[in-house]
Amino acid sequence: MAIGYPNGKKRKVQTKDSVPVKNKMTNYGKRGMSLEEDLNETNAFYLAHERAVIHKKPTPVQIVRVDYPKRSNATIKEAYFKQPSTTDYNGVYRGKYLDFEAKETKNKTSFPLSNFHPHQMEHMKQILKQDGFAFVITSFSSLGVVYLTRFDRFLPFWERMESGGRKSITLEELQAHSKQIPYGLNPRLDYLSIIDTFF
Amino acid sequence: MAIGYPNGKKRKVQTKDSVPVKNKMTNYGKRGMSLEEDLNETNAFYLAHERAVIHKKPTPVQIVRVDYPKRSNATIKEAYFKQPSTTDYNGVYRGKYLDFEAKETKNKTSFPLSNFHPHQMEHMKQILKQDGFAFVITSFSSLGVVYLTRFDRFLPFWERMESGGRKSITLEELQAHSKQIPYGLNPRLDYLSIIDTFF
């Protein structure tokens, strides 16, 4: 992965092997960036228009060392990324609890299941038991298409992998078990319009 | 605030003005520690017994600099605490969306409203509009009592402060508008039993 020279400009690197994070959001790594932005803007739109209250959870970080040069100005000096124990997004829409994970691939013919973690699957199973609505959003960034798959339709593909089957879902399979979320201007990815078709 | 010599033992301090974080959880600062532990254990109990799926959100952190000594082992070298835009806890209980904030005081006669932030109040207002159930848990650690207050009963005290009134809720007021959550062994703070009385 090439880091440091976007647009031909030399980026200021603070120390050897040290990468300044430009964006306020969690843009370390490359996965999920533009999908995450689209969803953040969509959720902000929903919030502003009182259509739903859905937030991305903060990235879980294990904090090891904090400096307090001044009482009011704590600086975290050592911390590590932790694996999330839940999905990234949840919230409430017309009394309904929504919970989902969103992932992106550059593949054009299948979606790798390695994008997801076993504990996220366990989490979404628990959500279903509590009568919440769990789903998965998958983006094929090279194709410009985004799908919403109810978790109960997604889970069988995960279980197929667990029992030794293929480690991805083919595009055709996803199409057969999902609904496409059309790109729009405002909101950018109106996934609630898809949710509405389920109830 | 005294740091460094609990139980008469000298704690290892890594650098000047630098405080190692002992606990995996967010125990920088002193606010909310034991209440947070009680709630985390309670939520783990609910999860294990499939009574509800409720998680504390990770502490939001703005990451400024990440070191990648090895590709697989990213270390955050500079980050700052961000103010959360929501409450700390949410989840689903029998199809119902729950959302709450939990705070602790050492005071014995009133609960300071400075423990809460305006954006948390705005967030809980939005939750009510979406037919979610929002509430506040307040712990008087010196008294050993914990209250659950529905947000619609809590909000008037916040609004009283905003219109120039007192900056705290008296213990008597809280008692009149809340239900006490009894301490137990398992779960430690069975707040769902209080939620049940509301439906």
From TrEMBL, chains A, B:
<feature type="binding site">
    <location>
        <position position="120"/>
    </location>
    <ligand>
        <name>Mg(2+)</name>
    </ligand>
</feature>
<keyword id="KW-0460">Magnesium</keyword>
<dbReference type="GO" id="GO:0000287">
    <property type="term" value="F:magnesium ion binding"/>
</dbReference>
<keyword id="KW-0255">Endonuclease</keyword>
<keyword id="KW-0233">DNA recombination</keyword>
<keyword id="KW-0227">DNA damage</keyword>
<keyword id="KW-0472">Membrane</keyword>
<keyword id="KW-0234">DNA repair</keyword>
<keyword id="KW-0540">Nuclease</keyword>
<feature type="binding site">
    <location>
        <position position="101"/>
    </location>
    <ligand>
        <name>Mg(2+)</name>
    </ligand>
</feature>
<dbReference type="GO" id="GO:0006310">
    <property type="term" value="P:DNA recombination"/>
</dbReference>
<feature type="site" description="Transition state stabilizer">
    <location>
        <position position="103"/>
    </location>
</feature>
<dbReference type="InterPro" id="IPR004612">
    <property type="entry name" value="Resolv_RecU"/>
</dbReference>
<keyword id="KW-0812">Transmembrane</keyword>
<feature type="binding site">
    <location>
        <position position="88"/>
    </location>
    <ligand>
        <name>Mg(2+)</name>
    </ligand>
</feature>
<keyword id="KW-1133">Transmembrane helix</keyword>
<dbReference type="InterPro" id="IPR011856">
    <property type="entry name" value="tRNA_endonuc-like_dom_sf"/>
</dbReference>
<dbReference type="Pfam" id="PF03838">
    <property type="entry name" value="RecU"/>
</dbReference>
<comment type="similarity">
    <text>Belongs to the RecU family.</text>
</comment>
<keyword id="KW-0479">Metal-binding</keyword>
<keyword id="KW-0378">Hydrolase</keyword>
<dbReference type="GO" id="GO:0006281">
    <property type="term" value="P:DNA repair"/>
</dbReference>
<dbReference type="InterPro" id="IPR011335">
    <property type="entry name" value="Restrct_endonuc-II-like"/>
</dbReference>
<keyword id="KW-0963">Cytoplasm</keyword>
<dbReference type="GO" id="GO:0007059">
    <property type="term" value="P:chromosome segregation"/>
</dbReference>
<feature type="transmembrane region" description="Helical">
    <location>
        <begin position="132"/>
        <end position="151"/>
    </location>
</feature>
<comment type="function">
    <text>Endonuclease that resolves Holliday junction intermediates in genetic recombination. Cleaves mobile four-strand junctions by introducing symmetrical nicks in paired strands. Promotes annealing of linear ssDNA with homologous dsDNA. Required for DNA repair, homologous recombination and chromosome segregation.</text>
</comment>
<dbReference type="GO" id="GO:0008821">
    <property type="term" value="F:crossover junction DNA endonuclease activity"/>
</dbReference>
<protein>
    <recommendedName>
        <fullName>Holliday junction resolvase RecU</fullName>
        <ecNumber>3.1.21.10</ecNumber>
    </recommendedName>
</protein>
<dbReference type="GO" id="GO:0005737">
    <property type="term" value="C:cytoplasm"/>
</dbReference>
<dbReference type="GO" id="GO:0003676">
    <property type="term" value="F:nucleic acid binding"/>
</dbReference>
<feature type="binding site">
    <location>
        <position position="86"/>
    </location>
    <ligand>
        <name>Mg(2+)</name>
    </ligand>
</feature>
